[in-house]
Amino acid sequence: MEQHELNKLRWHCTRRALLELDITLGRFLDNGFNQLSEPQVKTFIDLVAMEDHDLWALISGKVETADPREAEVITAIRKH
Predict the structure, then answer these.
(1) How many domains does the chain have?
(2) pTM for this one?
């Protein structure tokens, strides 16, 4: 991923309506994002496009996803 694309993604991850998402996604970008495969990066970008409350429900475990690709990325986010 090019630096300008990463900067844009970071902006979308850390300018959320929920502080919890700002912190969680920012930490993941710093510590785990580089470990994702290209398909996982695409899934992460799709997740970031979700509404804040829906995304937080997935990350916090209040709601589970049926999509195994999303589940894999969400597990990676939770680890960081």
Answers:
(1) 1
(2) 0.92
